[in-house]
Structures are given as structure tokens and as C-alpha cells.
Request: fold
Amino acid sequence: MSVGILIVCHGHIGTAIADSVRSIIGTLPLEVRILDIPTDMPRERLVEEGTRAVEELDQGDGVLVLTDLYGSTPANVACLQNRENVTVVAGLNLPMLLRVMNYPDLDLPELVGKAISGGRDGILICPRKDQP
Reply:
């Protein structure tokens, strides 16, 4: 068994990031479900779909829910997945998901740490060519 990953984002951001990771490393080594949130879907349906995805993903090791923007509708839907074996991390970016997929054997708390460090460590100022 392993931790399941649920990606809950605005529009098609989640799908695009997951597709990018798949093209970079060749596969998604953890079970992934993506809930792309359209602007016109009723909240009750979003919550139902999120709940169903968490139930399908949780095979005993828990579910890491990654969402794009804390306080937004996708994050609120993610946070309603209030279960003991579910952790929600907001601020999804490409380095975060890459880091998570590189550690498929970690347990949920360790994978949460990798997600946070991957997201944070992937934010850098790129030097100009004329700077040392």
C-alpha cells in the first residue's frame, strides 16, 4: 500500500501540473486523482466528488490532498475531507508534486514534509547573466 494523492485545483491547473510531472519522470508512482474545479459546479457536488475520491484513494496509508490556493473554493472543498488519515497542503506547484512523486515509499507525515519542502525550495530568484 501507499499514500494516495488527491489534487484539487482551479480550472485545469491540477491536470496540467500532473501531466508535466508525468512527462518529466515518465510516470506517477503514487495513485493520483485530480478534481479540477470549474467555476459553475455546485459546492455540494464538489464535496461529494472530493469525498468519493478520498474514499477510493485511501487504501490504509492515508491521502495527501494538494490544492492550489488556500482559502479558495478548491482548498475549502479539500479541507472538508476531514478525516484522520487525510492531510491537506495548499500552494501546489510543480516542484512540490515532483518532490512528492520522488518519494512514493514514505508514510503520510513524511510525504507531507516532502511536499512542503519541495514547494518552498522550488521558489528561487534566478540571477541575471550579468550578475555573478
About this structure: Strands lie at 4-10, 32-37, 63-67, 86-90. The chain has one domain: 4-121.
